Each structure stands twice: as C-alpha cells, then as structure tokens.
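This part of the workshop introduces the protein records we will be handling. A record pairs a protein's sequence with a compact description of its fold. Comparing a sequence with its tokens is the quickest way to learn the format. To make this concrete, we reproduce a full record directly below:
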Amino acid sequence: MWITPKPLALILGALLSAAPLLAANGPDVDGASSVKVECQRGSGMINVSIKHHRRIGKVHLVFRDAKGKTVYVEEGKAMTEELVRRFDKGMFPKGAATLSVQARDLDITETFTVQ
C-alpha cells in the first residue's frame, strides 16, 4: 500500500485548522456567564446584570417568591453579550426571592432578598 505525503498533509492541516473552531463553539468552561442581582435596602430598584460569552438572544426572566409562586415574568431579546435591567422593588413582596434566567444556551438561577 502506498500513501503519498500530500493527502496526509491535507488531512492533518484540515484537522488542525478546525481545532480552534471546535474550542470556540464548545461549552462555557471559563465561567464567562453570570447573573448578578443587586437589591440594596436604601434603593427602590432591583438591578439585574446578565453577562454571557456571546450574544444572548431571546431571554426569559422569571421572578419567584420564597414559596415558589411566580411574581413577575419578562421575555425579550438581547442583541449583545450583556443585558442590564432595573425593576421597581415595590412590585415584589419582601423576603427571599429567586430569579431564573433562560436563554438559548444559558440557564442560571440566582437567589436574593427583597428588603
């Protein structure tokens, strides 16, 4: 059996050039996705900051109280890697709460306290 070096070099070159693409589209291992909820006692607002390693796209926000009852739902679209939203604290009951953020490849739940 005779193998010429040229086809072998083409195959290896194709595999090596595809490796960075596979790594870039793989799962988020750097921890670049985050949801930060700030609810300070002296402020009348709840600040939500969502950061992701690529464009977020369609996003679904669900606020629940301590008993698991849905208090507020919002759907939208973020065309960038970051989404910042502010909510009036008066809409939410006092006490423990959770925020669930769902997007195409993002599913994070963050707990916070409304004071």
Confidence is low (pLDDT under 50) at residues 15-29. Strands lie at 34-38, 45-51, 57-65, 70-78, 82-88, 95-103, 106-114. Helices lie at 5-24. The longest strand covers residues 57-65.
